[in-house]
Amino acid sequence: MNSLSILVKSKSLFLVFLIITFNSCEVTEPALDPDYTGQTGQVADIEGNVYKTVGIGSQIWMAENLQTTLLNDNSPMSIILNDSIWARLNAPAYCWYNNDTIINKNLYGALYNFYVIETGLLCPTGWHVPDESEWNTLETFLGGYEIAGGKLKDYHTPYWNEPNPCIANNYDFSALPGGNRLFFSGKFFDKGERGYWWTSISKNEFYAYSKSMSYNSTSLDKFENRKKIGCSVRCLKDK
After folding, report:
1. What domain range includes position 54?
2. Per DSSP, what are the bridge partners of residue 226?
3. Is residue 6 part of a domain?
4. Is 75 exposed, middle or buried (0-12, 13-18, 19+ CB in 10 A)?
5. What DSSP string runs through 110-142?
6. Which of 64, 89, 170, 239 stands the most exposed, by the fewest C-beta atoms within 10 Å?
7. How many CB atoms lie within 10 A of CB 12?
8. Are 236 and 59 in contact (CB under 8 A)?
9. Which pLDDT tens digit goes with each residue over 42-99?
10. How many beta carbons lie within 10 A of that of residue 98, not counting itself?
């Protein structure tokens, strides 16, 4: 092999190394904290959809986004396909991103407006939509909001846009960037770049709080969203 070939091969290997390094997560030690950390299980909703669950610190979370179309008392929710109707609605409703059940239902779950959360009947019996303090408990256990998102994001799949900074761990929360549905236009937005999850806390008549993770950050952010926005939901097991 001549010197030119060796040089080209060396540069190629170096580029591959850079790409792998750039896309890999910072490695952390497995969590050894007490309580539920590392425990896994399953829970089913009223429709029979089965979700993985994972213990993190003193809490047990769904490891997948909720996708039920029924409240836990078997009452139906309205599915809204039309953008302008979604933007005007002040009643409980859900949808699938881009109205596409084939691609988005099982992967990202449903997007619910906050009027669904206010029923108190969305999660399976024995589970609930976490309030802000319960999300804060999670982020504190993971080392603070600046890095909690990086430990919760899924980093095994290509669903997050690059650069997707993350922190490798064994929590298996597997957060995905399911985007949202906007309140003012009813358009779908941010898939691949952000995930949004409702808390159960209302700020006032028009706004409620959500948590969010981004493709370009490791933080777990807090947002004030209009209640008409469609966000994902992760349920938390009752104590």
Report:
1. 29-237
2. 207
3. no
4. exposed
5. -EE-HHHHTTT-SSPTTEE---HHHHHHHHHHT
6. 239
7. 10
8. yes
9. 999 999 999 999 999 999 999 999 999 999 999 999 999 999 999 999 999 999 999 9
10. 13
pLDDT digits (tens, 9 = 90+) for 110-126: 999 999 999 999 999 99
Q: Helix %, strand %, coil % for the chain, to 5?
A: 25, 30, 45
Measure the CA–CA gap between 78 and 166, rounded to whole angstroms.
36
**Cα distance between residue 145 and residue 133, in whole Å:** 13
Number of domains in the chain: 1
Whether residue 175 is contained in a domain is answered as yes
Asked if the structure places residue 12 within a domain, the reply is no
What's the Cα-to-Cα distance from 219 to each of 105, 149, 151, 163, rounded to whole Å? 26, 5, 9, 14
pTM for the full predicted model: 0.88
Residue 57 lies in a domain: yes
**Which of the 8 DSSP states describes residue 95?**
E
Evaluate whether 53 touches 42 at the Cβ level (below 8 Å).
Answer: yes
What whole-number distance in Å separates Cα of residue 39 and Cα of residue 170?
A: 11
Enter the tokens of residue 96: 């699938």
Closest CA to 231 of 113, 68, 119: 113
Which residues, at least 6 apart from 232, have a Cβ–Cβ distance to it below 8 Å? 65, 66, 108, 109, 110, 111, 112, 178, 195, 196, 197, 198
Q: Contact 203/226 with Cβ under 8 angstroms?
A: no
The answer to whether the beta carbons of residues 173 and 54 sit under 8 Å apart is yes
